[in-house]
Write a structure and sequence with these properties.
The chain contains four helices and four strands. By secondary structure, the chain is α+β, with helices and mostly antiparallel strands. A four-stranded antiparallel β-sheet has the order 1-4-2-3. A hairpin with a 7-residue loop joins strand 2 and strand 3.
Length: 110
């Protein structure tokens, strides 16, 4: 079970990060590891990862891709929250490990 105060602090950090810069998955995965500690199963890790991503979405951060464009360096996915969570889970599950930055998507507040 995750300490709710620690979760709140981690989520606030991630939300601030997404407001200031592109938030890579390595930072989110690091938050999951920090909250769960060693020994958590991949299923538990994935569940917490998706909870965080959902809460980031609720706070205005969107998953998307970095582009070569100087006009639009971040392109948010055209997906609602449920679609984004389903896509992320589908891309993460086959690897049986949490993603690194650039593996699936980035997050930002557009």
């Amino acid at each position: 079970m995750v300490n709710q105060e620690a979760y709140r602090r981690a989520l606030e950090y991630l939300i601030r990060y997404a407001h200031d810069d592109w938030l890579g998955f390595s930072v989110v995965s690091g938050a999951v590891g920090g909250l769960l500690g060693r020994g958590a199963s991949f299923e538990v890790q994935l569940g917490l990862l998706l909870r965080i991503v959902g809460d980031l979405h609720d706070a205005g951060a969107r998953p998307g891709d970095l582009t070569e464009s100087t006009r639009e360096p971040f392109l948010p996915w055209r997906a609602d929250k449920a679609e984004a969570l389903t896509r992320i889970a589908a891309e993460v599950e086959p690897h049986s490990r949490l993603p690194d930055s650039g593996d699936v998507c980035w997050f930002a507040v557009p």
